[in-house]
Amino acid sequence: MKNKNIFKTIIFVCLIGIVYNSFSINEHFCPKKKKKKASTEVVNNQNNYWTYIEKNNWQLIQLDGKSIENANITIQFNIKDQNCGGMGICNRFSGNYKTQNDQITFGPIMSTKMACLHNSKIESDFFNTLSEGNFTFDVADQTLNFYRNQKLVVMFGLTMKE
Asked: What is the pTM assigned to this prediction?
């Protein structure tokens, strides 16, 4: 009699193990996926973009469809304070910005007023373009691109942060 009870117990434990394993296999091959809200993904992507943008220094390489060479105009972003600043050809500049999804809007750009004999038009055009406000943006490879009406207006290349 004792052997029958042990045998029944062993069979019962085996059946429980089989049922447990079948649920485990089902969970492994057919896991329940938690659906992320689209807004959460957008915020996470935006935060990833801005973390990458902030940790780097960006140099102007194209303005209004024209390549910029030897101008050394740079910009850096501070996401916590939502301000930016950098160096023009002769003058330092700074300003505020706001972002929403892939949109960026710059506030007025303030700069020093040093006399600039070489390429001063490029510097003033750059300051004016940023001050004009609203852009869409993206980060592609090693460039930070600003668009207006789906046309590339400003392109920065990645440089090392100083």
From this structure: 0.69
